[in-house]
Amino acid sequence: MTHRPKNIVILGSTGSIGRSTLEVIAASGGRLRPVALSAHSNLDLLEAQARQWCPGSIVATDPAAAERHDWSALPDGVQLLTGAEAVADVVADAEVDVVVSAIVGSAGLHGTWAALEAGKTVALANKESLVGGGPLVTRLAAERGATLLPVDSEHSAVFQALQAGRRTEVRRVVLTASGGPFRHYPPERLAQVAVEEALAHPTWAMGPKITIDSATLMNKALEIIEARWLFDLRPGQIGVVVHPQSIVHSMVEYIDGSVVAQLSPPDMKLPIQYALTWPERSEGVAAKLDFGRAMQWEFEPPDPDRFPALRLGLEAAETGGTTGAVLNGANEAAVAAFLAGRLAFNQIVPACRWALDAHTFDPHPTLSQLVHLDRWAREEVSRWVSA
Ligand code: MG
């Protein structure tokens, strides 16, 4: 039993997951307490959060933006730190119990790494940490006795369903995918998809990068890689099924044929809360399923021609090494180019394919090699887009 509140650090507190985390904390009846918050550019919101929660410290990771911001209304007890390096200091504080790693993209690896190095429990929303650095990140966690808990809804579902049997009894996991808004579009129509269309996700309200990733199914490709490292699975043990209602968040199939699933309405507050209260459960703020009304849930296999991203995910889970970092960096650059109107929607995956084929594979990269390759992949995709 914990008698004092669990002390939570939120890296990326102004993003979609960060804001939901604060809602979960607000509803925890004092059992959870934010002790540090970090944000990159939305400093108005960071300051408003600091005024509401009075955490011990806040980190503005972009020093230039921090310099421009007027901090005169910041409460006296809140320490202001600037620059990405300050993240390592706040996560390592002895009082910290859980670090929520919710910075979008490969920029989130730094904070995940620092928290694991300090032996903390990390609630991982930043899937790119595992996609790019899976073998290194999981080895670091093991060496430091740190715990990685999934916040991604599919992986939270798998984590929960894995508690129904022994690891040796698992045949495979099946990740569900909403299929995004274009699941029935003819392939030629995908060339004309506008940015606004791609940003309108049918079931989940999320940030722009992950919403585009959901529309290409690259999000599911990245989640295959994430699952491979998080649960130490063989790539052949990971399947994907399209489930448009986003109620069944993923499943584990056992060797006797039993399939154990986790179900709830699509609301990130549930997986966030489970990671924060684990191994306990508590009353939640997330919406509940209502079996008093009729529901229909559909499942269909994903069409690999319409969604070629899945193949890249399976390939990266299979080959490991430098492949995940290159795929992730290339995809981030390609999504940014699409959002800026410089790349067609159906060229996002070919841009990633091109970067993967152009890179020099290394099965046992170092962290600095991965950081370098992430930058290299972005530059290659930018060149490819403007060629
Ligand atoms: Mg997910």
Summary of the model, kept short:
The protein contains 15 helices and eleven strands. With 387 residues, it is of the alpha/beta class.
Shape: globular
Identify the strand order in the major beta sheet.
Answer: 4-3-2-1-5-6-7
Q: What is the CATH first-level class name of the largest domain?
A: Alpha Beta
**Number of helical stretches of at least 4 residues:** 15
What is the string of helix and strand elements? EHEHEHEHEHEHEHEHHHEEEHHHHH
Mean pLDDT: 94
- Which stretches are low in confidence, meaning pLDDT under 50 for 5 or more residues running? none
Chain oligomer state: single chain
Main sheet overview: 7 strands, parallel
* The CATH topology of the largest domain: Rossmann fold
Which percent band covers the strand fraction? 15-25%
| First-to-last CA distance | 60 Å
- The helical percent reads 40-55%
Q: Classify the secondary structure makeup into a structural class.
A: alpha/beta
* Total domain modules: 3
Rg calc? 20 Å
| The CATH fourth-level homologous superfamily of the largest domain | NAD(P)-binding Rossmann-like Domain
What CATH architecture label of the largest domain applies? Answer: 3-Layer(aba) Sandwich
Polypeptide structure, described:
This protein is α/β, with parallel strands linked by helices and 387 residues long. It folds into three domains: 145 residues, Rossmann fold (3-Layer(aba) Sandwich); 137 residues, no CATH class; 67 residues, Rna Polymerase Sigma Factor, Chain: A (Orthogonal Bundle). Helix content is 43%, strand content 15%. It has 15 helices and eleven strands. The strands form two sheets. It has a seven-stranded parallel β-sheet with strand order 4-3-2-1-5-6-7, with helices on both faces. Helix 1 crosses helix 11 and helix 6 packs parallel to helix 10. It is globular and about 55 Å long. Bound molecules: magnesium ion (MG).
